[in-house]
Amino acid sequence: MKIGNITFDKYPIFLAPMEDVTDISFRLMCKNFGADLVYTEFISCDALVRNISKTMLKTHISDQERPLAMQIYGKEVEAMVEAAKICEEAKADIIDLNFGCPVKKIAGKGAGSGMLQNTPLMLEIVSAVVKAVNIPVTVKTRLGWDNDSKIIVDLAEKLQDCGIMALTIHGRTRSQMYTGIADWTLIGEVKNNARMHIPIIGNGDITSAEECKNAFDKYGVDAIMIGRASIGRPWIFKEAKHFMSTGEKLPEADFSWYLNVLKEQVVNSVNLLDERRGILHIRRHIAMTPLLKSIPNFKPTRIALLKADTQEQLFEIMDAINC
C-alpha cells in the first residue's frame, strides 16, 4: 500500500489522531511498538495561522516517528490552505484533513464532522489544499451526519476526485459520537467500489489483534487505524502486528513489563511538559489502561493513581501493586 510516495508493508496499522493524547512522546512510543503511521493531535488551522504558541508546538516532530501525518481542521478555505502550507514547512510527511471530529465545539461551528452538512465547502477546501501543497493530502471523516444521511459511498468518490491520496472512515455518524457499535459495512462498500483506487483506512472499535485481522479479512481495507484502544495500552500495536504476521496471539509478558511501559509514559510526559502538567496529561492513560483491571481490588488503586500529584507518588503506588 502507498500514500503518495510512502510505501507501507502489508497490513499496516496506524495510530489515530487524538486530542490531548497523541503528543510526540506517545507517538514515539506507539511507533516503537509497531505503528506504521502516526498522527499529531488535531490542529486548529485558525490558531496555526495566528501563530499561537501552544498550537505551534503540535507541529514539532522527530525524525524517529516518521512517517508522520499532521491533521488540521477548520471551515475556511484560505485558513486551511495557509495551515497546510505551514504543516508542509514543518516537514510533515502527510497532511490529513479532519472532517470527522464530532464534539460540539468543533462540529457545531461547522468544522470537523460539521462539514458533513456542507459537502460543497468540504470539497472546495480539499481541492484547494491539494493544489497548494506538494505532499500527500488525506481525509478522515465519518459515515455521515446522522442515520438518515449516510453519504460516505458517494462522498468518497468526490473526495478522491479532488485529489486526496487516502481516505480514513470512522464507522459512525456524527450523531452517534462515540456511542453504539461502529458500522464497518459501509467502509467495506467504499473499499469495494470499483471506482475507488486510493487506499481506504478503516477506523472504529478495533480493540484487539483479532478484531484487527477480522477487519482486514472481512472488509478488505488497506489499513487499520487504532484510536482509543491504544490509550494506556500502546503495546496493542505490537500485539496486532504479531497476530497479523503469525496468526497467533502474542504471549503475555510479566505484569511488571506492562507497568514499566506506563512508567515510561509518565517519565516522557513529565519531561515533555513539566511535572504538574505531565501528571495531569498522563491521567487519561492511567484511567483507561486495561492493566489495572488485572489486579485484585483495582478501584482503590486506580483512584489513588489518579489523585497522585507527583511522579514520585505515582511510582510509589505502582511499586506497591502486587499482581
What does this structure look like?
The protein is of the alpha/beta class and 323 residues long. The chain is built from 14 helices and 11 strands. It has helices at residues 24-32, 45-49, 53-56, 77-89, 104-107, 119-132, 152-161, 185-191, 209-219, 236-246, 255-272, 275-288, 298-307, 311-319, and strands spanning 2-3, 6-7, 13-15, 38-39, 43-44, 68-73, 94-99, 137-142, 166-170, 200-203, 223-226. It is globular. The model has no long low-confidence stretch (mean pLDDT 95).
In terms of topology, how is this protein built?
Blueprint: E1 2-3, E2 6-7, E3 13-15, H1 24-32, E4 38-39, E5 43-44, H2 45-49, H3 53-56, E6 68-73, H4 77-89, E7 94-99, H5 104-107, H6 119-132, E8 137-142, H7 152-161, E9 166-170, H8 185-191, E10 200-203, H9 209-219, E11 223-226, H10 236-246, H11 255-272, H12 275-288, H13 298-307, H14 311-319
Parallel strand pairs: 3-11, 4-6, 5-6, 6-7, 7-8, 8-9, 9-10, 10-11
Antiparallel strand pairs: 1-2
Query: What is the number of beta strands?
Result: 11
Q: Oligomerization state of this entry?
A: single chain
* Residues in helices, as a percent range: 40-55%
Low-confidence stretches: none
Task: Report the sheet-strand fraction.
Answer: 5-15%
Give the CA-CA distance, first to last residue: 42 Å
Mean pLDDT rating:
95
Sheet of most strands:
9 strands, parallel
The ordered H/E elements are: EEEHEEHHEHEHHEHEHEHEHHHHH
How many individual helices? 14
- Please compute the radius of gyration using only Cα atoms: 20 Å
Structural class: alpha/beta
Which shape, going by the Cα principal axes?
Answer: globular
